[in-house]
Structures are given as C-alpha cells and as structure tokens.
Design brief:
The chain is mostly helical. Helix content is 74%, strand content 0%. It is flat.
C-alpha cells in the first residue's frame, strides 16, 4: 500500500488521489452493471427468436458471462490467458527456441546489410517465388 501512495503525481493532494481511486471503483462497478444489462438485452432480443430459447434475467446474464469467461478463456492453465499480454508471452514461448538462443550480436550488422544488399536480395527472392509459382501453375 505504501508504494501506491508513492505513485501519486507530485503536487497532487491526497484527497484528489483518493477521489480518483473512488471514482475508478465506482466506474468499474457501473460498467459491470451496464455490461450485464447489455448481455441480457442481446440474449433476450436474439436468442428467443432465432433458437426458441427462453428469456433470461439480469443475474442469469451475469452468470452466463462469468461461465463463458471460465470455459472459453481458461485454456486449462490460468484464467488470465485471455489477456493480450499473456497471448504475447505464449506466442513467444512457442517460438522456435533455437532462434531465440542466438547471440544478439549476430544482429549487429543487420541494418548496414539491409541498406546495402537487403532490397536487392528481396527483389531477387520475389522473382524466384514468382517463377516457381508460374512453373507450378503451368504443370497443373
């Protein structure tokens, strides 16, 4: 808790800081209530007409949202796997480990290479790919 108060903007009074926290809590609660009503409205507008399901209450809509988060976002590991940050971490972990273990100094001359030879090498590569795709098309 001590670190929380150290993060205040310099010169900001404690009252304003606490006011921001209270406003944030109220805003989160308000958005949660609004979100429950939006889910209920969407369900009650669409599902009975499309699939012949019954109308649900507000608390059923909130429960449906929580259940969907548990079932669809857990992924068998953590409930935080749905966050973009966790997706990036997972993507990096599944990346080719050998490429990650290379020495960073291998990239030291990359910018110079790209300026001198990169664009020409890329154009040759594109031509080679185009030739291969044309050859494949003729064989079919």
């Amino acid at each position: 808790m001590e670190n929380l108060f150290k993060e205040r903007v310099k010169g900001e009074s404690l009252g304003i800081f606490i006011g921001r926290i209270v406003f944030g809590v109220i805003a989160i609660i308000g958005l949660a209530i609004l979100f429950g009503y939006v889910i209920m409205w969407l369900w009650n507008t669409l599902m009975p007409e499309i699939f012949g399901l019954r109308v649900i209450s507000y608390w059923q809509a909130v429960g449906l949202f929580i259940l969907s988060k548990i079932l669809l976002c857990s992924g068998g590991k953590h409930s935080s796997d749905c966050s973009p940050r966790e997706k990036k971490k997972h993507k990096f972990r599944s990346f080719d480990k050998n490429r990650c273990n290379k020495n960073v100094s291998d990239w030291e001359h990359y910018e110079k290479f790209w300026k001198e030879e990169g664009s020409d090498a890329y154009e040759k590569f594109k031509e080679r790919i185009d030739e291969n795709s044309n050859t494949d098309t003729k064989q079919e």
